[in-house]
Amino acid sequence: MVSSELEARENSETKEKYGHCLSYILPTTGDHEVHWPSPSELYKQLCDGTSLNNGSKIYWFHRKGRGNAYFIFPKAISIAWINECQYWRWISIEIFGKKIDVAELVKVRWLDVRVRIKEYMLSAGVTYELLCHLLLKSCASGWHEPINFGLTLPNGTKFVNSESLECKPRDVWFTIKVEEFKIGDKHGCLNAKEYEFSMYNHNQHWKSGLIFKSFEIRPKQPCCKS
């Protein structure tokens, strides 16, 4: 009994060396369990990525940025009218060798996509980049007016990056950088503060032909010194 408790404590301490609050994050693993028979094997698994919440998120440890990183897919995101087939439909694509459901916009006027993430899931003291991954089909239309890509901090401060997608290439994935933000140097694993990420346009013209793949939250890589 004493031996097993000691082993569990050592496993927990080992996990925390490779990511923030992993003992709270990893129990939600969906597709497979993360094992740590040795620090080197654990490190490789975390860097390769782990599915969370039945594949609706992927967690990985960002080597260069030294912090937690995530892809958040549409199944874990609030999307207005997502269950109305005349407005949206689900399609499956392969990401990291796995089939992931992403959201294809058929047509909509009120575009509103939002998700929140707890602060404890992000590494303390790390500067993050928030990215949005999209594709416009060749038949896409209605993207001449700016789309708002937003970040709301726990204190209510909002950042909005407005971009027209009209000139973006068709039938290829592209990335919109929403904002950079820094996590405080210290925060506990029971921290309930939240960050909200969003993509929206509430103008009354029809928009169509967009595929929304994910939000990505990753540590900003340090600049290389010449």
Write a concise keyword list for the protein shown above:
43% strand; carbohydrate binding; PP2-like; 226 residues; 8-stranded antiparallel beta sheet; PP2-like/Lectin; mainly beta; disordered N terminus
Tell me what the structure shows:
- The chain is mostly beta strands.
- The protein has a domain at about 60-220: Jelly Rolls (Sandwich), CATH 2.60.120.260.
- Helices cover about 15% and strands about 45% of the residues.
- It is built from three helices and 13 strands.
- The strands form two sheets. Strands 1, 2, 3, 5, 6, 8, 11 and 13 form an eight-stranded antiparallel β-sheet that branches. Strands 4-7-12-9-10 form a five-stranded antiparallel β-sheet, with no helix packed on it.
- It is globular and about 55 Å long.
- The termini are far apart.
- Mean pLDDT is about 85; it is low at about 1-10.
- It holds the Pfam family PP2.
Write the layout of secondary structure elements.
Blueprint: H1 2-18, H2 22-25, H3 39-48, E1 50-52, E2 57-62, E3 67-72, E4 78-79, E5 88-95, E6 98-105, E7 111-118, E8 127-141, E9 147-152, E10 158-163, E11 173-182, E12 194-201, E13 208-219
Antiparallel strand pairs: 1-2, 2-3, 3-13, 4-7, 5-6, 6-13, 7-12, 8-11, 8-13, 9-10, 9-12
Rounded to an integer in angstroms, the radius of gyration calculated over CA atoms is 19 Å
Task: Sketch the topology as an H/E string, one letter per element.
Answer: HHHEEEEEEEEEEEEE
Q: Percent of residues in beta strands?
A: 35-45%
Superfamily at the CATH H level of the domain at 62-219?
Galactose-binding domain-like
Largest sheet geometry: 8 strands, antiparallel
* Estimated helix fraction: 10-25%
Low-confidence stretches: 1-10
